[in-house]
Amino acid sequence: MRTILPAAAAAAPTADFSNDTWWIWVIKAVFILVFLLVSVLMALWVERRGLGRMQTRPGPNVHGPLGLLQAVGDALKLVLKEDFTIKGADRFIYILAPFIASFCAFMVMAVIPFGPEVSIFGVVTPLQLTDMPVAVLYILAITALGVYGIVLGGWASNSTYPLLGSTRSAAQVISYELSMGLSLVSVFLVSGSLSTSQIVDAQTQLWWAIALAPAFLVYLVSMVGEVNRLPFDLPEAEGELVAGHMVEYTSMKFAWFFLAEYINMFNVSAVATTLFLGGWRAPWPLSAIGDGVLNTGWWPMLWFIAKMWLVMFLMIWTRGTLLRFRYDQFMKLGWKLLIPVALVWLVAVAVVQGVRQFTDTDLTTMLLWIGGIFAVLMVVLLVWPAKKEEPEPEAAATPHPEIIPAGTEFDAFVGGYPVPPLPGQTLPPSPRRARREAAGAGARTTQGTQTTQEEGHDV
């Protein structure tokens, strides 16, 4: 296991960008842009075909070979649809919101290492656009900023359902970014750096997904909540909010939100690959072939993309398997399970690192033992049956529907939440209808008075 570097030595990234020129930066930036756009088109096809197979249906299979051109048709449909802006919206923020979401989504890949140093037109450069001593903090900051696109889009629409969706999104980000950040801090402790290239270099002998298994599991759940995917798509929730924050958007403005969601899925998958799955390093036993020849040249880009797609398919698989959570279940999972587990695991890793300063105990052995215990505890907490609440006396004393006297006035909130009327109960008069009837009675009274005055005038 690699020795933890001192803070001063660990500050600098291991990637060397000293040979880069402006046209190398342009080539890398254009590659990232094209890579993400093509990956989104492929993700749409893979998700539809994969979910189709899981649900025993063919999926897209008409447009192009194996339906590969279906995603292109969907993209053209979004471009050519009618674009409109609703009257009551705050026009500037309404248009700005989808651009904030998409712009922040494109920015994350800038610090993700796709591979080691290679030669591009005679220039030796890392397969990474840039790196910095606090690259992971940059990723967390950009992802947090991207949520402003969703929140502002729902607020600027000046509509009920988008506002509810944006409010849910804000609460969701606060809840699940805490657990995600806590799960990543243990990686910083054992790697000795926040630089993405140096974190990959620290996983030469062992991936952090194995040594830090509880943190990896917490991150996997948190990343699904962070990108608003099933079973955590509460900001959209078609069955409740029609489409949440995107209800009032159409054409390309809707497409920017749609694109940002899928790019963010690749972003969190790339972060999981970089911080937990060894980054661009080949998995064992491929890494042992020819003294690590598969970890040099352009081969590592293949391993990185394969790992990223593996995590991506995990999210697609989850969508085809699980149902949407209730909002209270969603918040309970974040605040009562993920955050406490991540916090306790962080303290345990810090204690292990402190003990290693005074003993020669192997870090791998200690982390594997502690990680195994935590993994068992997490499974027990997830499957432990919840305590059933005893029925309230008022609910138990409610008479049977068949013996409720006819004409009994109905109170929808007698049990604490709205319920439909039972047989024999009548709905109370609607306040709106009462006001309308009162206004109609007043109008009739005024009209009758005017008629009487006119008749008296004629006489």
From TrEMBL:
The chain crosses the membrane at residues 22-46, 92-115, 135-157, 178-200, 206-225, 254-277, 297-317, 337-355, 367-384. InterPro entries: NADH_UbQ_OxRdtase_su1/FPO, NADH_UbQ_OxRdtase_su1_CS. Its EC number is 7.1.1.-. Residues 418-431 have a biased composition (Pro residues). It catalyses: a quinone + NADH + 5 H(+)(in) = a quinol + NAD(+) + 4 H(+)(out). Belongs to the complex I subunit 1 family. NDH-1 shuttles electrons from NADH, via FMN and iron-sulfur (Fe-S) centers, to quinones in the respiratory chain. The immediate electron acceptor for the enzyme in this species is believed to be ubiquinone. Couples the redox reaction to proton translocation (for every two electrons transferred, four hydrogen ions are translocated across the cytoplasmic membrane), and thus conserves the redox energy in a proton gradient. This subunit may bind ubiquinone. The gene is nuoH. Residues 414-459 are annotated as: Disordered. It is found in: Cell membrane; Membrane. GO terms for molecular function: NADH dehydrogenase activity; oxidoreductase activity, acting on NAD(P)H, quinone or similar compound as acceptor; quinone binding. NDH-1 is composed of 14 different subunits. Subunits NuoA, H, J, K, L, M, N constitute the membrane sector of the complex. One of its GO terms (cellular component) is plasma membrane. It is a multi-pass membrane protein. It holds the Pfam family NADHdh. This is NADH-quinone oxidoreductase subunit H. HAMAP family: NDH1_NuoH (MF_01350). Keywords: Cell membrane, Membrane, NAD, Quinone, Translocase, Transmembrane, Transmembrane helix, Ubiquinone. Residues 439-453 have a biased composition (Low complexity). It is an enzyme of class 7 (translocase). The keyword Cytoplasm does not apply.
